[in-house]
Amino acid sequence: MASVNPHHSAADAVELLIKTSREAARIYRNAAIAADDPELRTLTSELSESHDAYRRELQRLGSFPGAAIRREGIEAHLIGFWLDLTPAFAHADDSTLAVGCLRFNDRCGEAYAMAFENPALPPAARSVVSVQLREVLEASRRLRAVVAELEFVAA
Known about the structure:
The protein is mainly alpha-helical. The protein is built from five helices and no strands. It is elongated and about 50 Å long.
């Protein structure tokens, strides 16, 4: 997975999170449509809305000088996320879909953690990233609970 290197600029870190949030909103929206389980459908719909809000909040931080992430690198990063979920959407099995969403969300958490650790991140951006990181980690906890429930029901 392409990640935010702590030596990249703050602009790189925020830009990657904006792109990640945009893609996350789309992926979770598709998961909500594909899910049969009401709890999974509700959770992925909420996550889609949350990531739309994250993207808007990050965009409100304004532009930072020195954005150097190449578009191809961002697209490769996002394609890796999408490939994690492709089998889940193809099979439309809620358990597989929930596990794919969990893996995807964990990767979002990694991107947020790397951005938060970036020493070039200004205080205002660090504050926003910190709150969003906590929410992404909480989403992983909630997804783990849904996965456990779906696996219990299937057993």
